[in-house]
């Protein structure tokens, strides 16, 4: 069995359990929920197999949907993030980087990884809450959910990445 597959499977299980059993029950001010499982999409290597990225991300989103009773919202958001991740990574990565470079704070540097995380986590929260609310009648609530969850998700991803790099 491939070692990268095993690492990906372990991360998949840990992120699904942490999100489903712990973080889905955290609702700061009844609007902000940290969604650390988007970290899974951030860590795909450069030039990863696209179909594999989409399948892994869809399955993780589907499992989190089952835990959190949001039918299809997490799966759709994660699949979209897996689809656009290589394009965003192309904009952030140095041009002379390796073809199969791992995405992390040590390989990209603090600034680039922070920008990449900001963009992906914002797009994820935007898509997730737009699909969940599916209406702009309560646009202030939608804006609070997107903003609050984006900040919590971003901070939590940076904390997880700091522990992962050590």
Report the sheet-strand fraction: under 5%
Determine the fraction of residues in helical runs and give it as a percent range.
Answer: over 70%
Series of secondary-structure elements, N-terminal to C-terminal: HHHHHHH
Number of E-state strands: 0
Terminal CA distance: 25 Å
Gyration radius (Cα, Å) is: 15 Å
Global geometry = globular
Number of helices: 7
Structural class: mainly alpha
Query: How is the main sheet built?
Result: none
| Poorly predicted ranges | none
Mean pLDDT: 89
3D structure, described in words:
The chain is an all-alpha fold and 166 residues long. It has seven helices and no strands. Helix 6 runs antiparallel to helix 7 (139-165). The model has no long low-confidence stretch (mean pLDDT 89).
Give the secondary structure arrangement, pairings included.
Blueprint: H1 3-21, H2 39-42, H3 50-68, H4 73-92, H5 105-108, H6 110-133, H7 139-165
Helix pairs in contact: 1-3, 3-4, 4-6, 6-7
Summarize the entry for a quick read.
The chain is mainly α and 166 residues long.
Features of the shown structure:
globular, 7 helices, 70% helix, 166 residues
């Amino acid at each position: 069995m491939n070692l990268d597959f095993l690492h990906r499977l372990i991360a998949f299980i840990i992120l699904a359990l942490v999100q489903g059993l712990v973080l889905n029950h955290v609702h700061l001010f009844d609007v902000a929920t940290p969604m650390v499982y988007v970290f899974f999409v951030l860590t795909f290597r450069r030039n990863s197999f696209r179909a594999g990225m989409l399948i892994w991300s869809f399955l993780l989103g589907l499992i989190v949907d089952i835990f959190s009773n949001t039918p299809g919202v997490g799966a759709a958001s994660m699949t979209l993030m897996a689809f656009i991740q290589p394009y965003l990574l192309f904009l952030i990565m140095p041009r002379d980087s390796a073809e199969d470079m791992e995405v992390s704070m040590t390989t990209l540097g603090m600034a680039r990884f922070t920008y990449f995380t900001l963009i992906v986590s914002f797009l994820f929260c935007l898509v997730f809450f737009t699909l969940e609310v599916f209406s702009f009648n309560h646009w202030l609530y939608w804006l609070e959910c997107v903003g609050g969850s984006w900040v919590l998700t971003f901070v939590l991803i940076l904390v997880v990445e700091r522990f992962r790099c050590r």
